[in-house]
What we know:
Blueprint: E1 12-14, E2 20-22, H1 26-47, H2 51-69, H3 77-98, H4 114-134, H5 141-166
Antiparallel strand pairs: 1-2
Amino acid sequence: MKIYTRRGDGGESTLPGGERTGKDDIRMECLGCLDELSAHLGVLIADVEDARLRDMLHTIQLTLFSVGCTLGVDVADATSLKITNEVLALEHSIDELSAMVPPFSGFVLAGANRASAQAHVCRTVCRRTERRFVAVGQRTAALEASMKYLNRLSDYLFLIARMLEEGVDMRNDNIGRV
């Protein structure tokens, strides 16, 4: 099977669900941002030693596929519910992780170490992705859930970056589950 199809040569591509649209469609931009975020998460996974954190980040990568589906498919309530449950899981993890790092007291400059800097890159790409989702316009329950997920995810990634900067041990079994 060839990797190229030639179907996009005229500036169109296919959304999840099969709808053809222009590559400049805001939904395609959102999908590209999600793809970029997942790739950056992959770099972060490669940079961290903690197996639990790698597993949590991999779970986030998988959830981003569901988030992408909210852009081009008339998704069932089950997808919206799944993403809403992931929002709640992130909120729980954020609360736990917040207790593990010193109180935030100002501006953070990335670069304490490679992994924490990469977590900050993930956070900024996540924020851009969220801004692009806001620009989509037509709102569905699933899209609203996706926007909440991206908002919480950027907060979660900020805390992961701070933990990596501070060298916080995540081996406590109750910490950071998503």
